[in-house]
Design a protein that fits this description.
Largest sheet: 6 strands, mixed
Strand content: 5-15%
CATH architecture of the largest domain: Up-down Bundle
Helix content: 55-70%
Order of helices and strands: HHHHHHHHHHHEEEHEEHEHHHHEHEEEHH
Strand order of the largest sheet: 6-7-8-3-9-10
CATH superfamily of the largest domain: ABC transporter type 1, transmembrane domain
Number of strands: 10
CATH class of the largest domain: Mainly Alpha
Length: about 600
């Protein structure tokens, strides 16, 4: 093999997970549409029975024709078997059409349910779960692996069921016509089963490796496309092409290996089938010469043998091909099986309109198995006050906010809102009470109005306009050709950074949260836009609780209190003027920042 992994090495790899649990879960989705499935299976059974009768009718026709020749050419006796054969052909056409359509519809409905469940699972995953998986690999699961599930539900399942019932019906027909020839046909079946098991084991591993390599390529592509400006700025494009070529080569090798497994399997089954056909021909010819069976029976058995081995070969091939669908299904179900780390407790309370009191009680936190980020932090934010949080990079400022939004739960201690432990409240009601404006605002494809209305879909056009005016965004919106109906492109690419930030403020204002969180919301905008935002903030923060993470210390002059975080601890707190006068860490940060100007 020029490329790829050898079949021998695949055979020695770790055994994949048992197939039956995955198959059972796929069948569970099909059973959601039980009535349609049963109707389709009826036509599958009807088609199989019809296919099993057709060879017998052919044999009947042959024997009748021989008898008619021996009776001086009286062909009237051929009428009935000819009509029966014609009727069988019409019935076969109709039942094939009905089963393909019926099972195809059921498969697509089942796939619809799978996609809905997967998307719902993605929506409920915690922030920590997304941090543990690369976005490209996740997209590969949602697109490439779902397509493998689609292949099984829309085509593979139908073909497996059709071939399985067809083989069973053909076997019954063979036994009824002549048990000796039937046994001769079955001699090679154990060999076919053993061959299929061997190849399917290797194929499952090959297809699993292929799906993983596709995920790796997708992840690399997603990262490189997102960072193309940085790559060009640092002259890394040649190096990136080399690294991508290595990953792409692994993906190519995995695909070549999967193709090699499939290409070796089908000819092997063809040789076994030819051997069995030769056995049937030899035994049938001998029985006919001994006048133990009629010529029609031998002719019928050639048709039976061809149908039987075509069905068995199709089943065997499908069994191998199904390994690809199972490999994809395992990765898809891996998403469904990922537990939600942030969930409502059984007796969780609904947080009605919050007053906005925020309390941290002896809070410590660490990300996974990493170092402790916050150490025994205690803090009370009174309703209607603005608290600025400042400190060196990596001090733990954003972690405080993440705990309040309940993206994570504290390792130790309690975070409260209005006196309630966040873990005792419904997550949805907590987040409904918060408004968040990030340093890098995320806007969605659609219009300006859609993005402002994102957190409050029932808002009227007047309310959207009022929110935009409060955020100082109305001026630039009215200059756009279509105003609020202007399409802003993916992630707001048609707008400047400052305009995107103003829209994110308008979105937060319209949601009317009890607690507003500003995570370095002005650090990436120009001075003019910052002045606009500062003017908006005076209106927005009036009588509203706000936690403001600030890099530019000049933006926190109006805060009721400034909290200085250093190495996960509260180092200082007080008003802007009090901290400057204290000559501590805040003063050093202030002097260093203004010395740069």
């Amino acid at each position: 093999m020029a490329h790829g992994v050898s079949l021998r090495s695949l055979a020695k790899e770790e055994k994949p997970a048992a197939a039956w649990p995955t198959i059972r879960r796929l069948i569970t989705y099909l059973m959601l549409y039980r009535a349609e499935l049963l109707r389709a299976l009826f036509w599958v059974a009807f088609s199989a029975a019809n296919s099993a009768i057709a060879p017998a009718i052919t044999g009947w026709l042959v024997d009748t024709a021989i008898a008619a020749r021996n009776a001086n050419g009286d062909a009237r006796s051929l009428t009935l078997p000819v009509i029966a054969l014609f009727a069988s052909g019409i019935a076969g056409w109709w039942s094939q059409r009905a089963q393909i359509l019926g099972l195809g519809i059921v498969g697509q409905k089942a796939l619809f349910s799978v996609r809905e469940d997967v998307f719902a699972a993605v929506q409920r995953l915690s922030v920590a779960a997304f941090e543990r998986v690369e976005s490209g690999d996740l997209m590969s699961r949602l697109i490439n692996d779902i397509e493998q599930v689609n292949s099984f539900l829309s085509q593979g399942f139908r073909r497996v069921i059709g071939a399985g019932i067809g083989v069973a019906a053909t076997l019954v027909g063979m036994l009824l016509v002549d048990w000796r020839l039937a046994l001769a046909t079955l001699v090679v079946v154990p060999v076919m089963i053993g061959t299929t098991r061997l190849f399917s084991m290797i194929a499952r591993r090959a297809f699993r490796r292929r799906q993983e390599s596709i995920g790796d390529v997708s992840s690399t592509l997603a990262e490189e496309l997102a960072g193309i400006k940085v790559a060009q700025a640092f002259n890394r494009t040649d190096r990136n092409r080399t690294e991508f070529a290595q990953r792409n080569a692994l993906n190519r090798d995995a695909n070549v290996t999967a193709a090699a497994v499939s290409s070796a399997f089908t000819p092997t089954l063809a040789v076994i089938s030819a051997t069995a056909t030769a056995l049937v021909a030899g035994l049938g010819g001998w029985l006919a010469t001994q006048q133990l069976v009629t010529v029609g029976v031998v002719v019928a058995f050639f048709a039976y043998a061809r149908s039987f081995f075509n069905g068995v070969s199709q089943l065997s091939s499908l069994y191998t091909e199904t390994q690809s669908a199972l490999a994809g299904s395992e990765r898809v179900f891996g998403i469904l099986d990922t537990p939600a780390e942030i969930v409502d407790s059984p007796d969780a309370l609904e947080l009605d309109r919050a007053r906005g009191e925020v309390t941290y009680e002896n809070v410590s936190f660490q990300y996974g198995e990493g170092p402790t980020v916050l150490h025994d932090v205690s803090l009370v934010v009174e309703p209607g006050t603005t608290v600025a949080i400042v400190g060196p990079t990596g001090a733990g400022k954003s972690t405080l906010i993440n705990l309040l939004a309940r993206f994570y739960d504290p390792t130790q201690g309690i975070v409260r809102i209005d006196g309630h432990d966040l873990r005792d409240l419904k997550v949805e009601s907590v987040r409904r009470s918060l408004g968040v404006v990030l340093q890098d605002p995320f806007l969605f494809s659609g219009t300006i109005a859609d993005n402002i209305r994102y957190g409050r879909l029932e808002a009227t056009d007047d309310e959207v306009s009022t929110a935009a005016e409060a955020a100082r965004a109305l001026e630039f919106i009215e200059r756009l050709p279509d105003g609020f109906d202007t399409s802003i492109g993916e992630r707001g690419s048609m707008l400047s950074t400052g305009q995107r930030q103003l829209l994110s403020f308008a979105r937060a204002i319209l949601a009317d949260p009890a607690v507003l969180i500003l995570d370095e919301a002005t650090s990436s905008v120009d001075t003019r836009t910052e002045l606009l935002i500062q003017g908006a903030l005076r209106h927005i923060l009036h009588d509203r609780t706000a936690l403001v993470i600030a890099h530019r210390l000049s933006t926190v002059r109006d805060a009721h209190r400034v909290i200085v975080i250093d190495d996960g601890r509260i180092a200082e707190q007080g008003t802007y003027e009090e901290l400057l006068a204290a000559g501590g860490l805040f003063t050093r940060l202030h002097d260093a920042q203004f010395a740069e100007k």
